[in-house]
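Quick one from the shared queue. A colleague (R.T.) flagged ABC-type nitrate/sulfonate/bicarbonate transport system permease component as missing a structural entry in our internal table.

Convert sequence to structure tokens.
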Amino acid sequence: MALVGARGRGGLIAVGPVLRWGRTVGFALTLPVVLVTLWWVWSADSTNYYAPPLQTILTTFGDVWFSERLRADVLPSVTRLLIGYTGAVVLGVGLGVLLGANRTLRRVTEPVLEFFRAIPPPALIPILFLFAGIGDTAKVIVIISGAVWPVLLNTVEGVRAVDDVLSDTSRSYGVTGLARLRHLVLPAASPQIVAGMRQALSISIILMVISEMFASTNGLGFSVIQFQRSFAIPEMWSGILLLGLLGFVLSLLFQLFERRTLRWYHGLRRSQRGEN
């Protein structure tokens, strides 16, 4: 661990992790800062009605989204997103464990699952709206119907890949049922489950926006399409920016969750690579 001459109450302090964190943040922010700067300079003198200056968009951003729309449009969208994403994760992990642990069940259901997985989720929106209406329930179902697949398929593969030696050892020690699921199957499959959850998050955001564009009276997707239809171009751009920021923040939160949940896995990988 790197040490420098900075002194605290206990003497020398380790700044290695701080430097690594600073370097990571620097790499993460460099390209966005460059792109925003280029956008600002390129659009500064723009007279194109459909491509207003970035300064105008940012000014509109504050006026539009730090107002009543925060409660009326942003919160409903985020709520649908979180409920739909959570439902997809719970359903995907539950079914994935069942299918991954039971070869016969997996063979019986595989053709049906492959058929439904091949259908693009937006194609199901009209049908789902017919049966579930145009309320929040239908939008949550749309998110679940599309986001469940990466979680389900990754969980199945993760459960199937549980080490045979560990499986036999746990069985010989009488570790079965829920104890085996909790202490062996889920931890062993967790890297692939988390990978599926990461893919499902981006799919959930996409389907949240699409479902709100089809039939809705509020939400971010509804607002963006309404701004576009009324030729409120800066407001439309501000909505797109907000969606990007929402996805960015959720991605950061998910990375924190992943690092905490898979700390043992990343430590094992670093050890195998000979890193500290």
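The chain is about 80% helix and 5% strand.
The chain has a mean pLDDT of 88.
Added to the table.
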